[in-house]
Write a structure and sequence with these properties.
The chain is an alpha+beta fold. It has two domains: 92 residues, no CATH class; 145 residues, Gcn5-related N-acetyltransferase (GNAT) (Aminopeptidase), CATH 3.40.630.30. Helix content is 35%, strand content 31%. Strands 1, 2, 3, 4, 5, 6, 7, 8, 9, 10, 11 and 12 form a twelve-stranded mixed sheet that branches. β8 and β9 form a beta hairpin. The longest helix has 17 residues. It is globular, with a radius of gyration of 18 Å.
Length: 264
C-alpha cells in the first residue's frame, strides 16, 4: 500500500465516525447515515460508507434524511457531504431530484503536520494571532463571508456557531492574519479527539491580499499548534486556490469531496 492509500484508509477509519462532528448539537442515525444538527440551524449528512446500498435504497435514504430536516423549522440549510471514492450508485441524481445543489468540488488533502510547520515570512505590517474574543469572531466571519460571497445572514450564523464552539472549549482554535487592525485572512484548527488528526478548515484570504504567503504562514502556524497537541496528521478539504499551496508543502490529494446544499 502506497502513502496515498495509507492516508486515505486512515481518513476513512479515523475521521468518518463521530469524531467528524464534535460540535454537533444532535446526531440521529438513519441506517448507515448520520444526520447531524449544528448550532445556527445547519444540518449535515455524513457516513463512513453506505453499506453497499443500491440506487433505490440510496434514494430512500436521501428522501428520509430531507424529511428529517424539513420537520425541524430551525434548520435553514443542509449539507450532504459526498466523497468521490465512495460506492454510492445514483446518489448524485437523487440529491438533485430532492433539491440539493452541488457546490464546488474540493480536494481531500492529508499529510504529516511536520511538513507544514515551517517558517514563512510575512509581508510588512501583517501579524498572525489566535482569535477568541466575540468581536474578533464576528469580524473573522464577516471577512470570510465577503471572500466567499456569502450573505450577512450566513456570516451571522457562522459567528454564532463559532462562539458556541469556543464556549465549549473543545480544542478548536481560530487563527487570523491582521493588517492595520483589519483581518485579511483566517482559518480554524480542529484537533480530532482519539485520532492522529487535526483539521485545518475555513482557510480564506481576501482577494487583494492573496499571493503574498499569508495563507501558507497561517497554515504553518496551525500545523505547529497541532504538533504541540500531539497530532501528527493534518487534513483539509481544499479549494483549487489552497490545494497547490498544501501540495507544495508535502500534503497529498487522496480523493475529492463535493458538498451538496439544500436551503429552505
Amino acid at each position: 500500500m502506497d502513502e496515498r492509500s495509507r492516508l486515505l484508509a486512515s481518513y476513512d477509519e479515523q475521521l468518518r465516525t463521530e469524531a467528524e462532528t464534535p460540535s454537533a448539537v444532535k446526531v440521529t442515525a438513519l441506517g448507515p447515515v448520520r444526520l447531524v444538527t449544528f448550532a445556527g440551524g445547519r444540518g449535515f449528512v455524513t457516513y463512513q460508507d453506505l453499506g453497499g446500498a443500491d440506487a433505490g435504497a440510496i434514494d430512500r435514504l436521501v428522501r428520509a434524511a430531507l424529511a428529517h430536516y424539513r420537520a425541524d423549522p430551525e434548520i435553514g440549510r443542509v449539507e450532504w457531504k459526498t466523497r468521490a471514492h465512495d460506492d454510492a450508485p445514483g446518489l448524485h441524481q437523487s440529491l438533485l431530484r430532492h433539491g440539493f445543489v452541488p457546490e464546488e468540488q474540493e480536494s481531500i488533502m492529508i499529510g504529516p503536520a511536520q511538513r507544514l510547520a515551517v517558517d514563512v515570512p510575512l509581508p510588512d505590517g501583517v501579524r498572525l494571532r489566535r482569535a477568541a474574543e466575540e468581536s474578533d469572531v464576528r469580524a473573522m466571519s464577516a471577512m470570510s463571508a465577503q471572500a466567499f460571497g456569502d450573505s450577512a445572514v450566513e456570516a451571522e450564523a457562522m459567528a454564532t456557531a463559532l462562539l458556541v464552539r469556543l464556549a465549549r472549549d473543545d480544542g478548536m482554535e481560530l487563527w487570523v492574519a491582521e493588517a492595520a487592525g483589519h483581518i485579511v485572512s483566517a482559518g480554524r484548527l480542529e484537533p480530532v479527539p482519539g485520532t492522529d488528526f487535526a483539521g485545518i478548515w475555513g482557510g480564506v484570504t481576501l482577494r487583494e491580499w492573496r499571493g503574498r504567503g499569508i495563507y501558507r504562514a497561517l497554515t504553518a502556524a496551525r500545523a505547529r499548534s497541532a504538533l504541540r497537541m500531539g497530532k501528527t496528521l493534518i487534513n483539509s478539504d481544499s479549494t483549487e486556490y489552497s490545494r497547490p499551496i498544501l501540495e507544495r508543502s508535502g500534503l497529498l490529494k487522496v480523493s475529492t469531496t463535493t458538498p451538496y446544499l439544500w436551503r429552505r
